[in-house]
């Protein structure tokens, strides 16, 4: 399987031949003599055979895929949720199966220990009575949730999902730096790393005989089915804080991959002690809640009252056994680093075994003996505060000045229970690909485990993070933007293909439902459609105006271009623009204003503003979008970066129109015709109708006999030029143009077509319980369609401006379409509950 050392080295400098580890540090690839470890040889030999140019090309391909797939993290909690690109090293981290088997046993034992510890702390609290754990360490930590004491989770486990951050010291032994018991994150990024790297290096991945990660995710799905407590297909909801969370990409990614509903706190409600998902079709019972929200923020009724990231009453629902929560509320207590100091004796007491996977040496300052040791060895240790909510503290004693050290000693002596000291590990180094060469960087690996009916299943791989400096504190708090690596656990023989689909044969209940759609999801899909149509209309109009300005004849500018420019301000609603104060000056030199409407993200109503709004709504429903649709959204959100000059802006507008057309096509061809698609399509069609009405009112209605340039621009913006030319071989006629863009139900760009299509879809919306006469959205739609059908363009032209019958028609159509949107919002998007009588009638 492996190539010989002579094969790895070649006349041309190979990655291994120029790589040198750091002196005095364990290196993952090379031993102390500098020789490449056996399990790295095939990987490096393949890289060497590919050559530097090919490796560089594949590294660029990897970055492109990460960008296209929108793999991001959001370290600053930006509510816009745009995030930063996720960094992935093209060189994976290979681990031999023999070493991984030892690590796996240690992780399973550690998970079992922490599970038993949580069961005791939220139950009989025997370890406190025996003095194995200081009571103040537990009761003084806000992560200990007193309302959860006595709650026994379904299936009896208090730790369903577990992760540990591991470092290898200079002695070659792995140690745990941090235990993740709250809502362990990173498994979604590990999966995406694997998928992308196997795509960029398909032959290398296949021939390396790497264990598949699907084993872990299949175990996770099986566990949620067990937790549901009922047969069939359980309803599992992944609870997320929303797009502002640092790992929102992962939440949406895992929900889509596992087939779970992604929900925020406002999407859930507790009724009759059960947890329910609020959908367009009514309340749907939730069996399992896979939370990515911190425990204290999950219930404003019994926990943190200021938080609305979870539904009120969730604790009581868990207490009554009506819902299973993974991980159970209160599990975050064990993320206190001070617990690491007490795990060895706790392991002997609870499991009757020695701790197989040790932690980094840790001393809690709340005890006199450890505190004295810490104060005596302060320069050798890293000091951390143990309580969440306080100002983060992560200090290396050797890096403090005398004044800072004196202040820290005083703080520790004043409140010793707040501080923990840890011996900073000297992490092993791993080669990373930088600018065509391999460079040693410090390594941290996060490993994951999920509970099952008989024990824990460990992911055969994990998420590796690489440091960008040699700070002694890095391993305790790696930067969220640190370079990541895929972990390849090498099998001794080819592994079988794994799948998430159940292998058991049996009858399958055929369904054509697309899953529940929460009202928040429907609203975001609706507005995503509206912003897409709004952006498309704006992009086409701006392209026409800029094109006329750049390429048109100067004699056309006075009247024709001025009409187009005023239409830009009216349709995009970017007043004052070419209509308000200072309009005459801007009409003489329109380029700055046009470029601002195109590329200024802060210009409300502008094109870039609308594209960002589209991306924001798309992020809210990312789990509902296909990979291709998300690539298009990602391209649109990064568009219009080069709009400082009219020619460049025109090129950018061409790309925007193309990507918006791709987005429309994907929504038509790739989304099943469920309620989600109907609301997306409704938003798209009602906005297209509104934009066309506004455009006609701006270009045609102001005068009964408009210039040919106005009619030509109207046809161009509505993409109806070819249709008109095929039908009419004469010059542009007002009545014919108006019929085509307003009344022709065979023209997919006309207002009538949008109304007719909406009339076929609105009756399929969820039942409202209202008769048609009281359903305002249907009434408004019917009135608009009827009035448009009855209007006669040949009878038009009696006056100009507001006295023109066309102007009155357009104004009324706009009013009815806005009424349709308002009625739809009141019926389906209002998140407040109707008043309910709390007492019986007298």
Portion in beta strands: 5-15%
Give the termini separation: 84 Å
Shape: globular
- The mean pLDDT is 87
Q: Which bin fits the share of residues in helices?
A: 40-55%
SS element count, helices: 29
Low-confidence stretches: 1-12, 832-842
How many E strands? 21
| Sheet with most strands | 8 strands, mixed
Counting helices, strands and paired strands, the structural category is alpha+beta
From the alpha carbons, calculate the radius of gyration and give it in angstroms: 32 Å
List the helices and strands and how they pair.
Layout: H1 5-8, H2 15-18, H3 41-50, H4 52-68, E1 72-73, E2 84-85, E3 93-96, H5 97-121, H6 126-129, H7 135-139, E4 161-168, E5 174-180, H8 187-200, H9 202-207, H10 214-228, E6 236-239, H11 248-258, E7 261-263, E8 268-271, E9 274-279, E10 282-285, E11 288-291, H12 314-319, E12 324-326, H13 343-351, E13 362-364, H14 368-376, E14 382-385, E15 394-396, H15 402-414, E16 419-422, E17 429-434, E18 437-451, E19 456-458, E20 463-466, E21 483-490, H16 519-551, H17 557-572, H18 583-588, H19 591-599, H20 607-620, H21 627-637, H22 646-670, H23 675-699, H24 708-717, H25 721-727, H26 734-743, H27 751-761, H28 776-790, H29 805-829
Parallel strand pairs: 3-21, 6-7, 6-11, 11-12
Antiparallel strand pairs: 1-2, 4-5, 4-18, 8-9, 9-10, 13-16, 14-15, 14-16, 17-18, 18-19, 18-20, 20-21
């Amino acid at each position: 399987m492996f190539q010989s050392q002579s094969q790895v080295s070649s006349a041309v400098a190979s990655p291994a031949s120029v790589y040198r580890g750091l002196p005095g540090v364990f290196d993952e690839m090379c031993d102390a003599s500098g020789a490449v470890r056996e399990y790295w040889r095939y990987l490096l030999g393949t890289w060497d055979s590919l050559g530097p140019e090919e490796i560089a090309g594949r590294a660029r391909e990897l970055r492109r895929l990460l960008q296209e797939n929108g793999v991001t993290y959001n370290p600053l909690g930006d509510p816009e949720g745009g995030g930063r690109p996720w960094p992935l090293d093209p060189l994976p981290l290979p681990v031999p199966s023999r070493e991984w088997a030892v690590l796996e046993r240690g992780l399973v034992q550690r998970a079992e220990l922490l599970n038993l510890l949580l069961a005791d702390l939220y139950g009989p609290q025997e370890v406190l009575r025996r003095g194995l754990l200081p009571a103040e360490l537990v009761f003084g930590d806000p992560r200990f949730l007193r309302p959860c004491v006595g709650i026994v989770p379904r299936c009896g486990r208090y730790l369903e999902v577990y992760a540990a951050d591991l470092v290898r010291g200079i002695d070659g032994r792995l140690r745990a730096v941090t235990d993740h018991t709250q809502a362990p994150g990173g498994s979604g990024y590990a999966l995406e790393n694997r998928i992308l790297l196997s795509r960029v290096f398909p032959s290398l991945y296949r021939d390396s005989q790497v264990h598949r990660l699907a084993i872990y995710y299949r175990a996770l799905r099986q566990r949620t089915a067990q937790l549901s407590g009922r047969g069939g297909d359980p309803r599992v909801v992944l609870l997320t804080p929303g797009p502002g969370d640092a790992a929102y990409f992962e939440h949406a990614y895992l929900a889509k991959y596992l087939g779970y509903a992604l929900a925020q706190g406002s999407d859930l409600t507790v009724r009759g002690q059960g947890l329910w998902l609020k959908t367009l079709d009514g309340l749907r019972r939730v069996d399992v809640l896979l939370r990515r929200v911190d425990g204290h923020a999950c219930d404003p009724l019994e926990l943190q009252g200021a938080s609305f990231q979870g539904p009120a009453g969730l604790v009581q629902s868990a207490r009554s056994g009506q819902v299973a929560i993974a991980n159970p509320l209160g599990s975050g207590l064990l993320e206190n680093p001070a617990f690491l100091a007490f795990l060895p004796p706790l392991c002997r007491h609870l499991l009757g075994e020695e701790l197989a996977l040790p932690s980094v040496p840790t001393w809690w300052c709340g005890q006199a003996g450890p505190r004295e040791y810490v104060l005596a060895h302060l320069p050798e240790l890293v000091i951390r505060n143990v309580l969440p909510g306080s100002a983060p503290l992560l200090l290396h004693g050797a890096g403090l000045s005398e004044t800072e050290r004196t202040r820290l000693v005083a703080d520790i002596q004043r409140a010793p229970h707040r501080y923990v000291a840890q011996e900073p590990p000297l992490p092993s180094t791993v080669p990373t690909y930088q600018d065509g060469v391999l460079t040693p960087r410090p390594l941290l690996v996060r490993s994951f485990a999920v509970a099952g009916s008989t024990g824990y299943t460990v992911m055969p791989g994990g998420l590796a993070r690489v440091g960008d400096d040699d700070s002694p504190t890095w391993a305790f708090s790696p930067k969220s933007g640190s370079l990541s690596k895929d972990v390849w656990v090498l099998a001794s023989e080819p592994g079988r293909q794994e799948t998430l689909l159940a292998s058991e044969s049996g009858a399958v209940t055929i369904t054509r439902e697309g899953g529940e759609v929460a009202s928040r999801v429907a609203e975001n899909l609706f507005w995503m459609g509206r912003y897409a149509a709004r952006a498309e209309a704006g992009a086409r109009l701006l392209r026409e105006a800029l094109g006329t300005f750049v390429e048109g004849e100067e004699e056309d500018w006075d009247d024709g271009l001025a009409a187009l420019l005023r239409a830009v301000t009216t349709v995009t609603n970017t007043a004052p623009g070419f209509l308000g104060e200072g309009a005459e000056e801007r009409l003489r030199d329109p380029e700055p204003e046009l470029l601002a409407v195109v590329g200024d993200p802060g210009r409300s109503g502008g094109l870039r503003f609308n594209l960002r709004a589209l991306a924001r709504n798309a992020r809210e429903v990312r789990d509902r979008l296909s990979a291709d649709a998300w690539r298009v959204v990602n391209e649109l959100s990064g568009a219009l970066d080069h709009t400082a000059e009219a020619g460049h802006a025109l090129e950018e507008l061409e790309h925007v129109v193309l990507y918006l057309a791709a987005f429309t096509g994907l929504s038509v061809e790739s989304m099943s015709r469920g309620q989600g698609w109907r609301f997306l399509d409704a938003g798209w069609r009602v906005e297209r109708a509104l934009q066309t009405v506004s455009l006609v009112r701006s270009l045609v209605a102001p005068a009964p006999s408009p210039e040919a340039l106005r009619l030509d621009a109207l046809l161009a913006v509505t993409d109806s030029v070819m249709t008109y030319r095929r039908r009419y071989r004469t010059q542009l006629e007002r009545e014919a143009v108006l019929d085509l863009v307003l009344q022709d139900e065979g023209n997919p760009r006309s207002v009538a077509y949008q109304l007719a299509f909406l009339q076929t879809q609105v009756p399929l919306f969820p039942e409202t319980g209202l008769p048609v006469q009281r359903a305002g959205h249907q009434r408004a739609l019917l009135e608009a369609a009827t009035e448009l059908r009855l209007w006669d363009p040949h009878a038009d032209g009696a006056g100009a401006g507001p006295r023109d019958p066309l102007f009155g028609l357009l104004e009324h159509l706009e009013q009815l379409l806005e009424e349709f949107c308002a009625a739809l919002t009141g019926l389906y998007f209002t998140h407040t509950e109707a008043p309910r009588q709390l007492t019986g009638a007298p």
